[in-house]
Structures are given as structure tokens and as C-alpha cells.
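Q: What does the assembled structure look like for these inputs?
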Amino acid sequence: MKKIDKERLILAVAAPVLAVAFAMLLSSAILLASGRNPVEPYALMVDYAVVNPDVQVLIVNRTTTYYLAALAVAVGFRMNLFNIGVDGQYRLAAMLSAAVGTAVPLPGALRMVVIVVTAMLVGAAWAGIAGILKTTRGVSEVVSTIMLNAIATSLIAYLLQPSLLGKRLEGSNDLTTGELPESAWLPGIPTSAPGSEIYGFIVVAVLLGIGYWFLLNRTRFGFDLRAAGASESAAAASGVNGRRMVLTSILLSGALAGLTGMPLLLGEAHEYNLAFPAGVGFTGITIALLGRNNPVGMAVGALLLAFLKVTSQTLDSNGYVKEIAEIMEGLIVIAVVVAYETVRRWGLRRQQQRVGEELARTHQASQDKVKKEVPV
Amino acid sequence: MELHGITKRFPGVVANHDIDIAVGRGTVHAIVGENGAGKSTLMKILYGMQKPDEGTIAVDGEQVAFSTPADAIARGIGMVHQHFMLADNLTVLENTTLGAEKLYGIGAKARAKIKEISDAYGLGVRPDAVVEDLGVADRQRVEILKVLYRGARTLILDEPTAVLVPQEVDALFANLRELKAEGLTVIFISHKLGEVLSVADDITVIRRGTTVASVKPADVTAKQLAELMVGAELPSPETRECTVTDTVMLAVDSLRLTAHDAESGPRAVLDDISLTIRKGEVLGLAGVEGNGQTELIEALIGLRAPDSGTIRLDGEDITSRPTRARREGGIGYIPEDRHRHGLLLESPLWENRILGHVGEAPNSKGFLLKPKAARADTERIVREYDVRTPGIDVTAASLSGGNQQKLIVGREMSHRPKFLIAAHPTRGVDVGAQAQIWDQIREARREGLAVLLISADLDELIGLSDTLRVMYRGRLVADADPASITSEELGSAMTGASSGRLESPDGQPSGGNPAADEVPAADKAPATSGAPAPGKDSATGDGDGGEEA
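A:
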């Protein structure tokens, strides 16, 4: 029995490691095919991170943002929902919460609470549109969330007009929501690198990771959610209200997506501007896949992806194109999906076989015992 | 085909040893044995899914070694699996040609070939029918056709009758005889001895991984065969002590449900269903699959909302309660498809123990799960219900069907239901586990459990029920006293041939059965009505039930 458990653990770790290694190998092959050094870019990237403490801080900060996006995606995944709209949800939430944050006359801490709550509500509401479409009209959430991403982009551009919520800075074309008062800036954690701070919101991210695990694995709601994700029909027969579960989990996913912009908004930008990166939601999907919806696995995945994103900047100045990191990210996704599915099927079959063997063995052992006891 | 000295070892255990079977061309050869006796391994070896460690296989006197099913097919050996492998949304033609496009293409030539095979063996398959519109028996014929289409001369059928009613079994056997007459060989795996005796030319009995006897059906009785198979007498599902009380536990009143098909428009799948089940009563519902039983179960458990009618449990109207409230209110549910409705296959056993009872002790307290308590209770179920597993952390998928079922029965019984929906409770379960499940239902019934029993195994239905109702095209068309009815009579009512009160000619009075009054005086059926199978007396009816189990 112990053997089976141990094997399962090894498989769980081996699959992503192999997938990443495979993705690196393929990336090297691509480099080689284009006549470049197949190893140097990795060395450059590692070097860049090791030598510069401020780069390390950047990586950690990016990890925080990615982790929240991954959590949002993972909540959907556990319920078999593909929330591809985390990207739109997070940007719209960041923008509207920043606007609300600048508008409400409240003392600092309270203002931050209002911002965070607004962000969660906006994220949930935007995702909720897809949820309602799915539960009432049967529209696939994959399609509706993708389209809502595009709509969110246009909506943000519209709302950021100076006549509405936007402000144009002196001597710049960038439209923002206006800076939050300094009392609403979330203090960071100082580091040895001068001028670099780790986002204070990282604490919230860690707590959310723990909360995510607890909610899914230790509560009745979490059990129902996982059951619905594992088998819709079995969950329905067990008394899970499928529609309500779809709606609840998509709202939850949207609320988490809303939080994704908070580390950057409260810890660094202090306003919503066009610098809020697009594509974070998609990176979140990669991470959730890589980390297999596991809170620790996703943390490692977020760190890896943040590392790739941040350190690939150095490639440009060293004669390589930084897109190599993006190619690698894509390859990781493919490799991970293939590796997990293969390992899942193989593991399931292997376990069936092992259980059969183990049972047969104990059966035979008891038979042998009987034989010994009965003198022939 | 000849198998000699086949031995298959898995690390630490011998699954098959010294198997000797000789199958003559143009015969139906039955292989019987309990679940776990090694039939599956043997079949996998025959079909090239596994390689034997020792021994030889010879086809037409020529030694062969199969390493994949493709090798077996090339040698003219095909397999019809117990669980059909058909794509529901494709037509028969598409299903047949899928993967065999090279043989006759996918167009007119393939269609002609299908017609030819279908006509030659009397299969009656329509190439352009969509599989999802077909009944179980038709699907099975499509599976057989698929194998023949690929040029098989030897067919392996794995438990082909498990999903069929008696009349369909007869039709299948007629097909098999047809195949035999054309010189094809059929290897037939089963543990239903009555059927084996009626169709097989030769019988090989497997016990504990080896062949223990090869007999001719003329030389043995079902009882002797059973003893060969298990080394002991078979249990019977008989329950003759009466535990029915006067307290109504479940009352269903004029339940109607309409399904909307894209093609045929609205169709009543439940038509004016009224029934009551009292405490301590087992109501057996007979019917060919697809006549509304599934819909009735789903309406009772709350997965489908009826158009009209009421459902009362223990005096309370539960018609509009959600599924969870019903389950927590005391409805136990042994679903007909345990993989789809009863288990999370990739979750560990202890999580499966929580499924359906997440809000109840010992699984949770308030909003929080109690994994420790749930695990401890899973250990108890595994122990008390004899679930054969190395532990409670293995996935449900790694257990055999019988053990999965025992886990489900244990789980449902652990919550002391007031009313149990038992749909095919012993389907795919071996003889030992079957007796155990029957015992558990009987015991709970003694303590006042009301049971709705749905089963394709008519002997089980007759043996276990206090009252029998027959469902046909969404209506309860007939009822019968299990003490006096035979499975043949019941089978004929299931096809709609007879209705009303089913009684044997010298009909024993069926005292204490007020449920009969509720049967609507259904449409006057043909002359057979009310007096099926003349010449049978009720005494043999009882006897049959016991023997054929």
C-alpha cells in the first residue's frame, strides 16, 4: 500500500519536471535549428537573475501576480470550467477598483479594503456574465470568457477617456485613473537591493493559497466542487446542484482574478494605467496546468514562469531574441498536458494492476496457510 | 482452436495455470466460472491483450503467438466486450467501418457488406440507424456485426446476456446458432448456468485460475455445474418470510414526465405512475430496459422534475425537494450505472464514501469535512461489507465491479435509509458478493426498510420482492405475486404481451396485496392477457426461481 502511495507521489513530481526538461530540450533544438548556441540563453538568464538582487525581487513580485491568476484559473479547473477570461477580469477589476479607490474619501487602510473588495466584486461580476450565460443558455464558458476579454479591453479604453474616469498626465499620452493617495499604498517588504521592495500583497497571496487548499479539501463546499469537476453525473446524483455550483465556482474564480491586479496596483503603480500587463490570465492557465491545481505546485510554476518572463529581457541585449522564452512557455504547456494525461492513464492502469496483484497475493497467502494447516 | 497448458503469472501470483481447452470449429463453447476465477485473463490471452508465460495456442492446428489484438483479428478471432464500444452519435455504418476503413471503404461497398453479413446471420441490423437510438440488444448485434465485418471466424462473447431480458437472450441465442450453422465458432463466457446449458455444445469450467472440468450440457444439471464452479451450492435470492407492514413509506401518485426528442416530438416516458411501498416491503419493478425505469428512479431521487404528480416519503411531500434534501431525508440510492452515478472513479475510496452523504455524520460537521472520521468509517465499511482492497487510498477505479458495488451498498446502508432505490444491485457481481448484497437488503427490510428493486435478473426480482410491478412504455401495466409467477410469465409481460393482474392458471390467491388495486385497468391486451404460459403450475415456478439463480 505504502509502495503505491509513494509511487503516486513520485509520478506527481516527475511529470512536470520531465515536461519542463522536454520543453527546454525542444527550445534548444529550435535554437540549434536557427543556427544559435543552444545552451547560452539559459546560462544568460540564470546569470542575470543570480547576479542582480533587484531582478530577484522583480521575479518574486511577478510570481505574486501570476500566483493569484493561477489560483483563479485553478478554482475553475477543479470544477471542469475553463475560465480563459481571467485576463479581462483582472484588468477591468484593477481599473475600476483604482477609480473607486481614488474617488472615495476614506482613511488609508479602509480605502485599501474598499479597493480590494471592489476588485473582487468587479472580477466576479465580469466572470458571472459567462456563468449566467452558461447556466441559463448553455453557452460554453470557453467561448464567452474569451469574448469577454476583448470586450473588457474596449470597455477599459472607453472608461479611461478623460471625460469619464480617465486622467491624462501632463506631457504624456498615457491615460490613467489618477494616483491613489499615499496612505492607500500597501507598504512593501524591504530587501537588500536598494530601492526594490517585495510587494506586501505577497502575504495575502500566501494566505489565499492556504485558503484555497482548505476550502477545496476540508470543506463540504470544496468536496462538492471537486466531485462536480470529477464527474458531473455522479455529483448530481449525490445532490450537488450543478448549475449553482457552476455559478458559484465561476464567481469565485472571477473574484480571485479580480485580486490579481492588486499587488501591482497597491504596491507599485498606485494607479491603473496602460502598463498593466495583458496576458497575465493566460500565464495563469499555464501555471495552473503546470502546478496541477495544487497550491504548492502552482507556486513553483509561478516562480518558473516569472523567472522566464523577467530574465528573458536580458536576451535582447545579448544578441538573442527574448521570444525564445515565449516559445519555451508554449512548449511547456504542450509538454505538460501530454505528460499529465499520459501519466494519469498509465498511473490509473498501473494501480488497477497492482491492486489486483496485491489482492491475489493475499488471497493465495491465505490459501497456502489453509493448505499448511490441513495435513495431506 | 486449442489451448494447452496456458499459464500466466503476475509478479507474485499465478492468474492462470495449466489451462487446457479444445474448441471445435462450428461449436458454441461456454467458459463458466466465478468472477475472479481467471476468465478475463484467459480471454485477454486469447485475444492477444496479454501474453501467456507458458503454454501454447493453436488455431486450426497451427501454433500461434498473439502479441496484440490485431494479431488475433488477423487470425480470425474477434471479441465482443461486455461494455459496448460504440460511438453513440454515429450510425451503425460509421461505427462498423471505424478503424476498418481499409477493408471495404466507408461508402456503398461497406454498406453492402454490412447488409450481406446482417442478412446471412439474421442480425437485422440497419446500417444507417444512429446507435443512440438503438436498444441494448440491437447494440449488441452491432458489436457482433463489427467483429464479423473484420473477418472473424471465432467470436469471443464476454457475458453477453448480462444486459438482456429473457426474450432478447433467446434472440441472441438464435443468432449464435445461426453463426454456428455457418461454421463459425463462438466462445461464450458466462456465469448464468441456465443459459449456458441451453446454448452451449461444450462447457469448460474454470475455478481458481485453472480448468476443473470439461462437460457436455446433456450430462450435467445446473446444480452440478454450479458446484463445479464454486465448489459449493449456489445461494438463492428467496425471501419468503413476510415483513411488510401497514405503514406507507413511499407514495407516488400519478407521476407524469414528458421527454422531448428532436425527431419524435414530445413523448410520455412516465405515464400516470402510481405506487406505494410500505415499510419492510420490497417492490420489484420488472421491465425491459428503456421503458421508463431510469426516468422513474431519476424522478424519485430528484434528478428529473416530473410534469405532474406527487412523491411522498414517510408522509412528507418531497416532490419539489432537491436531490440532496431527499438523500439526507432518508433515500438510499444504489444507481444502475455505478460508474456514472455512484462513484468518483479517480478518487480514493474514502472520498467515495463521502459522496452523496457529504453533509452527514461522520463525514462532516458543520461546513467542515472530517477526513479522519470518514476514513475510519471507510475502513469499517471495507471490513463489514468485505470490500476486497489493499487499502482505502486506492482509487475506486482499481477495484473490481463487485467490490465497487459492495462499497456503494455499504455506504448507502451505513446511513440507515428509510427507502432504498436499488437498481440492478448485483449486476456484474460474483456469486459470493451477490448473496451478501441480498442478505443486506433482506436484513434492512426486516428492520423496516422500504425498497424499490429494479433488476434485469428476473430470478433476483422474483426471489427478493414482496410485490412485483411491470413497467412497459412508461406505464405500470401489470402486477404479480412473486410467490406464484415464473420468470417466463414475467418476461412475457415485460414485452407488453400481457397486462393487468398476472396469475398462474390455478392461481394462488394473493392475499395481503392491496397494491394490486391501484393498477389501472390497462388497455385490453391481446388474448394472452392474464393467462400466460398455460400448463405451468405455480409450484414449479417457485422451484425455477431457486435453481436458475
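The domain at 2-228 of chain B is CATH 3.40.50.300 (Rossmann fold).
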